[in-house]
Amino acid sequence: MVKVEVCVGSYCHLNGANNVVVSFQHMIERFGLHEQIELSAAFCMKNCAGGGVSVRVNGEKYSIRSEEARTFFKEKILPLVQK
Ligand code: FES
């Protein structure tokens, strides 16, 4: 199970956290990954200075722009699922 958390703290919310969540949900749907990925929202990850939306994948923190969410999913999350 890959654990994916999206920060919905106020800073990340302003940077498009909702769009990231929706994009990830679409990708999970598209690839049929409900059983393999646990997607959840998280409070501030103390990573507000990252300049984007904070995302944690199996405990590793990233800061992504909301428009990059699908690419990020393909590059950083999908490979973990396929292992
Ligand atoms: S609000 Fe998202 S890291 Fe602080």
Short description:
With 83 residues, this protein is α+β, with helices and mostly antiparallel strands.
Describe this structure as you would to a colleague.
The chain is an alpha+beta fold and 83 residues long. It has a single domain (2-82), classed as 3-Layer(aba) Sandwich (Glutaredoxin), CATH 3.40.30.10. It is built from three helices and four strands, in the order E-H-H-E-E-E-H. It has helices at residues 10-14, 17-31, 69-82; strands at residues 2-7, 37-42, 53-57, 60-64. Strands 2-1-3-4 form a four-stranded mixed sheet. The protein is globular, with a radius of gyration of 12 Å. The structure holds FE2/S2 (inorganic) cluster. The site of FE2/S2 (inorganic) cluster has 10 residues, from helix 1. FE2/S2 (inorganic) cluster (FES) binds at residues 7, 9-12, 44-45, 47-48, 54.
CATH topology: Glutaredoxin
Bound molecules: FE2/S2 (inorganic) cluster
The biggest beta sheet is recorded as: 4 strands, mixed
CATH class: Alpha Beta
For the record, what is the CATH homologous superfamily label? Glutaredoxin
**Average pLDDT score:** 95
* Shape summary: globular
Based on the structure given, which CATH architecture is correct?
Answer: 3-Layer(aba) Sandwich
Radius of gyration: 12 Å
Helix percent reads 40-55%
Order of helices and strands: EHHEEEH
Q: How are strands sequenced across the largest beta sheet?
A: 2-1-3-4
Structural class: alpha+beta
Structurally, the number of domains stands at 1
